[in-house]
Design goal:
By secondary structure, the chain is an alpha+beta fold. 16% of the residues lie in helices and 38% in strands. It starts with a strand and ends with a strand. It binds the ligand N[C@@H](CCC[C@H](N)C(=O)O)C(=O)O.
């Protein structure tokens, strides 16, 4: 049976979206997702996203497979793309610009803005070592400025869980980081039992930082929404950033705010690229 798909991208973090509203089981397997994400032999993407029926009173459920077939709890750029995809699927039947979306990280709320951007209530960051999870500190302590040995070097890291796990390190010059070499060593470090996404951050000023990312299950990507949120939180915890900042990624900027209600808000684009049939 043919399956329709639509390719979307959020700052170059690209996804194959599948209308899965008629079933609670993803229409394709993780093995097939690996093949579809392949940039030479497949469609090419950082992941496959399924728009499923809502659970726990939500409008819809989002599930995602990374390009290595693993299933993360959340995806920030992906949920903006999913909101744009849902608006298109609903067409004239669309009742609201806001969606309550069930994810493995809880309910996340994206809102379509009048300028075409999508603003997402990303929830409250979790900060203890047990919540990351990591062995870098004792279970109920925050993981701020801890030392991690990677590639024969000591790195000063701060960890944040935005539904999925992130390890953030502040550097002088992001362009000088050998991502391809050290990214996998962070991702698979024994301090992170569920592997980790790693963000390298250069603080230009307290309201503007540059970021490069090595994603768990996807490698180098042009942007990571949860990573940008986690990095802003790490910047605030270490006294380097204001509570609102622009995070400049290789694919473009995201506006991130850690609001007084403790929730994180992320604003950025989501664009349709093409449609096709599998
Ligand atoms: N690119 C995403 C994050 C996707 C999931 C990640 N690779 C993981 O395994 O946690 C984003 O925009 O947040």
């Amino acid at each position: 049976m043919a399956i329709d798909f639509t390719k979307y991208q959020g700052l170059g973090n690209d996804f194959i979206l599948i209308d899965n509203r008629s079933s609670s089981e993803p229409a394709i397997t993780p093995d097939r997702a690996i093949k579809l994400c392949d940039r030479h032999f497949g469609i090419g993407a950082d992941g496959v996203i399924f728009a499923l029926p809502g659970e726990n009173g939500t409008d819809y459920t989002m599930r995602i497979f990374n390009s290595d077939g693993s299933e993360p709890e959340m995806c920030g750029n992906g949920i903006r793309c999913m909101a744009a995809f849902l608006a298109e699927l609903e067409g004239d039947a669309k009742k609201s610009d806001k969606y309550q979306i069930h994810t493995l990280a809880g309910t996340i709320t994206p809102q379509l803005m009048s300028d075409g951007q999508v603003k997402v209530d990303m929830g409250i960051p979790r900060l203890t070592a047990g919540e990351i999870p990591t062995t870098l500190a004792i279970e109920n302590e925050k993981v701020v400025n801890q030392v991690l040995q990677v590639a024969g070097k000591s790195w000063d890291v701060t960890c944040v869980n935005m539904g999925n796990p992130h390890c953030i390190t502040f550097v002088e010059d992001v362009a000088a980081i050998e991502l391809e070499k050290i990214g996998p060593q962070f991702e698979n470090h024994s301090a992170f039992p569920e592997r980790i996404n790693t963000e390298f951050i250069q603080v230009v000023n307290s309201g503007y930082v540059k970021m490069r990312v090595w994603e768990r299950g996807a490698g180098i990507t042009l942007a990571c929404g949860t990573g940008a949120c986690a990095s802003l939180v790490a910047g605030v915890l270490t006294g380097k950033c204001d509570r609102t900042a622009t995070v400049e990624l290789p694919g473009g900027p995201l506006l991130i705010e850690w609001s007084d209600d403790q929730r994180i808000y992320m604003t950025g684009p989501a664009e349709k690229v093409f449609t096709g049939k599998l």
